[in-house]
Amino acid sequence: MPWVPTCADRRMSRFPDPRTAPGDEPLAYGGDLRIDTLCEAYRRGIFPWPGDSGIIWWWSPDPRAVIPIGGLHVSRSLRRTLHAGRLRCTSDTAFDAVVAACAHRPGEGTWITAAMRAAYAELHRAGRAHSIEVWDDGGRVVGGLYGVTVGRVFCGESMFHRVTDASKVAMVAAMRVLSVGRYDLFDVQLPTAHLRSMGAVDMTRSAYLDLLGAGLPQPARWDPAAAESSMLG
Predict the structure, then answer these.
(1) Contact present, 190 and 65 (Cβ < 8 Å)
(2) What is the Cα 165 distance to its own chain's centre?
(3) Interior CA angle at 147 toward 60 and 138, to 5°?
(4) Which residues contact 28 (CB under 8 A, 6 or more apart)?
(5) pLDDT, tens digit, for every residue of 165-182?
(6) pLDDT at residue 233, rounded to an integer
(7) Order of strands across the sheet with 64-68?
(8) What is the rounded CA–CA span in Å between residue 136 and residue 161?
(9) Are 175 and 69 in contact (CB under 8 A)?
(10) Helix axes of 35-43 and 114-125: crossing angle, nearest 10 degrees
């Protein structure tokens, strides 16, 4: 398996071609989490996933779990939650708090290490990473998600909830932002039962990389105001 050189080592190509990599295991390991490393990885359809030992593993799964724009499944119970009006959404107002909440999983462990949190905070300051916050009527963040924009694709990284349906409400708000901003795809990376219930489907890696590459020259626009209106539409 190829080793990923650090940014200081320019003598080697940073990442291998994901089209020729295995679909069910990492394609490389090592390297760093600097902005230019992460941006290059996402542009190539690759994302980091640190292991228990602290080594950074780089993935480009085949197939890829995605939710097409307009393909989010909203159940009747979730519609009731949305119409109840007890939760409201914002975007990019509490990025660090959302990432910290996603990382806080007592008894489960987490891949969102301190280094990952610092790296994505830097991406956020650079306008490359975004969050959706879900607030209760007491002004507490009770759910949310965060991810990275690359071209016209939003790569969701993680989500959390502290009250019923809060992470699903965050998904609704995120999809509204993506629709308004004319994104092509909500990339959720790896399938779970929860994501499939929300409309996630499989896309071949080849098709994903083709779509990703086509959107790079004309990136979409992330509009935080669209998240705030998501409860109404």
Answers:
(1) yes
(2) 18
(3) 150
(4) 1, 2, 3, 4, 15, 16, 46, 57, 58
(5) 999 999 999 999 999 999
(6) 46
(7) 88-91, 129-135, 141-150, 153-161, 185-189, 64-68, 201-203
(8) 11
(9) yes
(10) 80
User: Strand 28-29 to strand 129-135: parallel, antiparallel, or no bridges (unpaired)?
Assistant: unpaired
Q: Contact at 8 Å (CB) between 155 and 47?
A: yes
Pairing state between β 56-59 and 64-68: unpaired
DSSP state of 25: S
Residue 99's beta-bridge partner residues? Answer: none
Using the structure block, give the residue that is written with the tokens 């779509």: 211
Half-sphere exposure of 122 (CA within 13 A, CB side): 12
Structural contact between residues 4 and 15, judged by C-beta atoms closer than 8 angstroms: yes
Q: SS3 for 223?
A: coil
Structure letter (DSSP) for residue 56:
E
Q: Is-above-0.85 flag for pTM? A: yes
Extract the residue ranges of the chain whose pLDDT is less than 70. 1, 3, 5-13, 107-109, 229-233
The token duo for 65 is: 């779990």
Which CATH number applies to 65-228: 3.40.630.70, 3.40.30.10, 3.40.190.10, 3.10.180.10? 3.40.630.70
Helix (H), strand (E) at residue 208: helix 205-215
